[in-house]
Give the backbone structure.
Amino acid sequence: MNRKNILTIAGIALLATACNYQKNNTIKQADLNENDAYVYGVHPDSAARQTKNKYASKPENEVRANKIREKLFSDSTNAQGN
């Protein structure tokens, strides 16, 4: 067999083994929260109970976030890093 045939067969074999890679790269383990309505909701299609928590917004957090954004993304700091 010449070199082209060997490389073709090796390439096909490599592609065939790559297709099944993720099947072997998993761990079989039981879900500890399988029947927990707090995590998964009362039905598989429903929203979880924990996502219904609403928190009041604090204006001081918005001011602080804007100061951080200004410090990180101001034009003077971007020019120094490049």
Remarks:
- The mean pLDDT is 80.
- The longest helix spans residues 3-19.
